[in-house]
């Protein structure tokens, strides 16, 4: 994930969540679903956030959800990035817990993550 090298928004989201009291583990760019799941297990993550700006969201986001399910985790997957509205139902049907777009406010980010974690029963 993070194949596009465009991570400014991701860093802003990470800082927003840290300022809201969340522990954020940033793995950096170009991580595989397996690497992300391993980190989620190691860090006992409540949620997984992935950034999609490369148009691969319909392939990579479901792959991330599948890896989480395969690992028998209840960890919600939250996708942020340039996601066309027409693709949102497909991602939701694939199990993506929340979708954040460029321009989402700090409150939008915090609410989306909090509700996704609550719905998954991770905390």
From TrEMBL:
- Give yes or no: UniProt keyword Methyltransferase: no
Keyword Isomerase in the entry? The reply is yes
Q: Which GO terms describe its molecular function?
A: cobalamin binding; isomerase activity; metal ion binding
Concerning InterPro entries, the annotation shows:
Acid_CoA_mut_C, Cobalamin-bd, Cobalamin-bd_sf
- Spell out where the chain crosses the membrane: none
Cofactor names: adenosylcob(III)alamin
Q: Where is the B12-binding domain?
A: 1-123
Q: Which UniProt keywords apply?
A: Cobalamin, Cobalt, Isomerase, Metal-binding
Pfam families, alphabetically? B12-binding
- Please give the NCBIfam families that the UniProt record associates with this protein: acid_CoA_mut_C
State what protein this is by name: Cobalamin-dependent protein
Species of provenance: Candidatus Neomicrothrix subdominans
